[in-house]
Each structure stands twice: as structure tokens, then as C-alpha cells.
């Protein structure tokens, strides 16, 4: 009996250790966040045991009486938050949302313009990612390394010459707004649809602090709901387009790329949307302020933070060239040993370089802001980081300092109520 109980306990033990590790670390991965207590509560509900295929009130299964009301409410909140006529909360991740749009709005062999990987593009937009697997003919926009954005004149030329069916914008290294306004006439001239991948910046857009893609010419926005939008790991599509196009997108989502849509995470998303309506503007502003402060401090202390001429960043993200400290891999691993968690990242000088050994690192301030970091705390963090990289402190001592700094920040902010999101909650006794 219970031959594998010890294996189960081993898994639980890993989870406990993992929680503790993050409780004691400073989290700087630009694509992660922590949830509010109400949102976390939703993950444990019976919604997570059920199926609800299709759209509200047109289901295929019984038992969806409250699910329909839940989904209506999530859609209503999503439309309100993004000031959008269309909202679909069913994709189960950002990539899944992207696939829904790809299935709905493209056919194999069609042409699509998209950001380049070395310019921060996401793997789903790569030849070996979802766009490539769909058999699309991908043309990349030229990228301006100095300003870390798409080269507008070059992009205009590319679009006019290649006449794509669809133009994709949005990156995983997303420092400055995409040039939608600037290219609007060009989109109209070639008659293409415009798709904005807002996975990273969905929370900043919700807080009205980055750009307003739907007013600047985007037909649809896809997003992850767990990066700057501090919700569950899930996805969404937001639309401001004609009914026919929207129907195609919704069919792309279901039955195109999913069946059930993970109802407990959808409920958590609904809570997050409500909290962003109440707290989103203050949260987004603080994220960006903290990113600028961190960039300025690191730069002043000798780190080659990119895009200095544009003030480093207008988002939650900053990137740095860390070749003089041994490169992205070495720096990320060294900082990890001192409980600072971030990732190595390709930067523009890395053209064609192996992404396991890039020259840069990427840093995001959305999670530290969520748990209460203010300007002075960010400055303290920059100082510790630079002491570590310049070998002015032992790794042991640095880890102690990092844990000490983190110990004051264990309560999630910008939401209803508060909790320690790193705390391990036991159900099994
Ligand atoms: C993170 C990211 C995604 C994918 O999101 P998942 O939720 O991890 O599937 C898509 N596009 C961009 C630009 C991203 O950065």
C-alpha cells in the first residue's frame, strides 16, 4: 500500500524548498510576478476541475451555470480595463493566444512582418516557433540598436515592399513603445491587419503608462496575464476590429488551439482585472519609475545598461551588456548564487550568437514593485549587485545582504488585502 507516498512527499518537499528559495531571493525575471490573495484563492476552487468548451451560454457540457456568469464577468472587466469592444479570456497562455490569432488570421504561405529575435522578438514569432510552424513567410523589420526599437523608416519600406497580410509587433525585450502610430498610414496603404503581442507590457497598458495599441491602430492584442499584469499563468486576446475578423480570431482560439480553458485560472484573471482597474495606474507608474532608477544606478556604478540615450527604458525592463563581467551566463549564475534571480539574454551585438551564451542580461522590476520596493530599496539593490559583479564582496556575505534586504518585502501590494505570496499553504495534514 502507498508504495509511492514517499515520492509524493519528495515532490511536496521540493515545492516547499522552492517557495522558501523565492521568499529569500530578489526576483528580477521580467516575465514573472506574484498573485494577490484573492486571485490565489481562485486557483484552489472547483472551477479547476471542470470543463467549459466554447463560449458562455453556448456550451457543450452541463454544469456550467456559474462558469457562464464568471466568464461574462471576466469579459466585462477585460473590456473595461482595456477600453476594448472585444475580449476573449480563454487562451491558457500567451503563446496559446498567439496561436489562436495565427490560426484565425493567417493561412500557410502567407506573409507576415514580425520583430527579429535579436531585436527582442519572442520565440513564438520565430522561424522555428509558432509562426514558422504555421508555414508563414516571415519578414523581419530592421532594428535600430542604438534606440533599441524597430527602425521606423526601414519598417515602412519593408511593409510597402513585401505587402504582408499581417503585421506583428511586440517583443520579450520591450523597452520602448512599438511604432504603431508612425506606421498607421502604411498599414492602411497595404491593407494589412495589425497584431500587437502585449505579453510583457499588458499590465503597463492596463495602467495607461506605456502605449494604447488599440487606439494607435492595432486590430488585436494578445497577452500573457502573469508578467506586468500580475495574474495567473494564463492568456487573453483583446480586440478592436470588425466582427468578421473577431469571429475568425475566436474560432482560432476555440476550437483552433484549445478545448477547455482552465476555469480556475480564468477566475483568478477576473480578480486580477478588477484589481488592476482599482490599482493599475499607480502600480504601472511605480514599475516604470523603479526600472528607470535601477537602470540609472547600475549605469552610474559601471554597468553598460543599453539605450542610455533614450533614458534606458519606458517599461518594466532594462537590458545590459555584461561582457566586461564575463558575459550573460556567468553574471546570471553568479547573481543566482547570491539569491538575485534574473536571466541571461541576447542583445543586438549577439547577431547569430548561441542563445545559451549571450552577452547580456535582462532585468524586470514588476515583481519587486509588487512587493513594495521603493526608490531607495532599488538603489540598495543596485549597489549590492555591483559589489558582487566587481568582486568587492564574498558571495556568502552578498547572499546574506540580499536575504536581509528581501526580508522586508514579503507582502503583495496593489491588490485587495495582502498576503505573503511565497508562503507555503498546506492542505494535506
Ligand atoms: C512571454 C511571451 C509570450 C508567451 O507567453 P507565455 O504565456 O509564456 O506562453 C509571447 N510573446 C511574448 C512577446 C512574450 O514575451
UniProtKB/TrEMBL annotation:
<dbReference type="GO" id="GO:0019264">
    <property type="term" value="P:glycine biosynthetic process from serine"/>
</dbReference>
<dbReference type="InterPro" id="IPR039429">
    <property type="entry name" value="SHMT-like_dom"/>
</dbReference>
<dbReference type="InterPro" id="IPR015424">
    <property type="entry name" value="PyrdxlP-dep_Trfase"/>
</dbReference>
<keyword id="KW-0663">Pyridoxal phosphate</keyword>
<dbReference type="InterPro" id="IPR049943">
    <property type="entry name" value="Ser_HO-MeTrfase-like"/>
</dbReference>
<dbReference type="InterPro" id="IPR001085">
    <property type="entry name" value="Ser_HO-MeTrfase"/>
</dbReference>
<dbReference type="InterPro" id="IPR019798">
    <property type="entry name" value="Ser_HO-MeTrfase_PLP_BS"/>
</dbReference>
<keyword id="KW-0963">Cytoplasm</keyword>
<keyword id="KW-0554">One-carbon metabolism</keyword>
<feature type="modified residue" description="N6-(pyridoxal phosphate)lysine">
    <location>
        <position position="227"/>
    </location>
</feature>
<protein>
    <submittedName>
        <fullName>Glycine/serine hydroxymethyltransferase</fullName>
    </submittedName>
</protein>
<comment type="subunit">
    <text>Homodimer.</text>
</comment>
<dbReference type="GO" id="GO:0005737">
    <property type="term" value="C:cytoplasm"/>
</dbReference>
<dbReference type="GO" id="GO:0030170">
    <property type="term" value="F:pyridoxal phosphate binding"/>
</dbReference>
<dbReference type="GO" id="GO:0032259">
    <property type="term" value="P:methylation"/>
</dbReference>
<dbReference type="GO" id="GO:0008168">
    <property type="term" value="F:methyltransferase activity"/>
</dbReference>
<dbReference type="Pfam" id="PF00464">
    <property type="entry name" value="SHMT"/>
</dbReference>
<comment type="similarity">
    <text>Belongs to the SHMT family.</text>
</comment>
<keyword id="KW-0808">Transferase</keyword>
<feature type="domain" description="Serine hydroxymethyltransferase-like">
    <location>
        <begin position="9"/>
        <end position="384"/>
    </location>
</feature>
<dbReference type="GO" id="GO:0035999">
    <property type="term" value="P:tetrahydrofolate interconversion"/>
</dbReference>
<dbReference type="GO" id="GO:0004372">
    <property type="term" value="F:glycine hydroxymethyltransferase activity"/>
</dbReference>
<dbReference type="InterPro" id="IPR015421">
    <property type="entry name" value="PyrdxlP-dep_Trfase_major"/>
</dbReference>
<keyword id="KW-0028">Amino-acid biosynthesis</keyword>
<dbReference type="InterPro" id="IPR015422">
    <property type="entry name" value="PyrdxlP-dep_Trfase_small"/>
</dbReference>
<keyword id="KW-0489">Methyltransferase</keyword>
Amino acid at each position: 500500500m502507498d508504495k509511492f507516498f514517499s515520492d509524493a512527499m519528495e515532490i511536496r518537499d521540493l515545492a516547499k524548498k522552492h517557495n522558501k528559495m523565492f521568499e529569500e531571493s530578489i526576483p528580477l525575471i521580467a516575465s514573472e510576478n506574484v498573485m494577490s490573495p484573492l486571485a490565489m484563492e481562485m486557483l484552489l476552487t472547483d472551477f479547476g476541475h471542470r470543463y467549459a468548451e466554447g463560449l458562455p451560454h453556448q456550451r457543450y457540457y452541463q454544469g456550467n451555470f456559474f462558469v457562464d456568469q464568471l466568464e461574462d464577468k471576466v469579459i466585462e472587466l477585460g473590456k473595461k480595463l482595456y477600453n476594448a469592444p472585444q475580449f476573449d479570456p480563454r487562451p491558457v497562455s500567451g503563446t496559446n493566444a498567439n496561436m489562436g490569432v495565427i490560426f484565425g488570421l493567417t493561412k500557410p504561405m502567407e506573409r507576415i512582418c514580425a520583430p527579429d529575435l535579436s531585436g527582442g522578438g519572442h520565440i513564438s514569432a520565430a522561424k522555428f516557433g509558432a509562426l514558422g510552424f504555421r508555414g508563414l513567410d516571415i519578414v523581419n523589420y530592421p532594428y535600430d540598436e542604438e534606440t533599441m526599437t524597430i527602425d521606423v523608416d526601414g519598417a515602412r519600406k519593408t511593409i510597402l515592399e513585401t505587402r504582408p497580410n499581417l503585421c506583428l509587433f511586440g517583443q520579450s525585450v520591450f523597452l520602448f513603445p512599438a511604432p504603431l502610430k508612425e506606421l498607421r498610414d502604411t498599414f492602411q496603404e497595404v491593407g494589412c491587419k495589425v497584431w500587437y503581442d502585449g505579453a510583457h507590457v499588458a499590465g503597463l497598458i492596463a495602467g495607461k503608462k506605456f502605449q494604447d495599441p488599440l487606439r494607435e491602430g492595432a486590430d488585436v492584442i494578445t497577452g500573457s496575464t502573469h508578467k506586468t499584469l500580475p495574474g495567473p499563468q494564463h492568456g487573453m486576446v483583446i480586440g478592436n476590429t470588425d466582427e468578421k475578423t473577431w469571429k475568425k480570431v475566436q474560432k482560432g482560439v476555440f476550437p483552433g488551439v484549445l478545448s477547455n480553458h482552465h476555469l480556475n485560472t480564468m477566475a483568478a484573471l477576473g480578480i486580477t482585472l478588477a484589481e488592476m482597474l482599482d490599482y493599475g495606474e499607480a502600480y504601472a507608474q511605480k514599475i516604470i519609475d523603479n526600472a528607470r532608477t535601477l537602470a540609472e544606478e547600475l549605469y552610474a556604478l559601471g554597468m553598460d545598461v543599453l539605450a542610455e540615450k533614450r533614458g534606458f527604458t519606458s517599461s518594466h525592463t532594462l537590458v545590459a551588456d555584461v561582457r566586461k563581467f564575463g558575459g550573460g551566463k556567468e553574471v546570471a549564475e553568479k547573481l543566482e548564487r547570491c539569491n538575485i534571480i534574473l536571466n541571461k539574454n541576447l542583445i543586438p551585438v549577439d547577431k547569430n550568437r548561441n542563445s545559451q551564451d549571450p552577452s547580456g542580461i535582462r532585468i524586470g522590476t514588476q515583481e519587486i514593485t509588487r512587493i513594495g520596493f521603493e526608490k531607495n530599496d532599488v538603489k540598495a539593490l543596485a549597489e549590492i549587485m555591483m559589489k558582487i559583479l566587481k568582486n568587492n564582496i564574498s558571495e556568502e556575505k552578498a547572499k546574506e545582504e540580499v536575504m536581509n534586504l528581501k526580508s522586508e518585502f514579503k507582502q503583495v501590494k496593489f491588490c485587495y488585502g495582502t498576503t505573503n505570496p511565497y508562503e507555503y499553504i498546506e492542505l494535506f495534514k
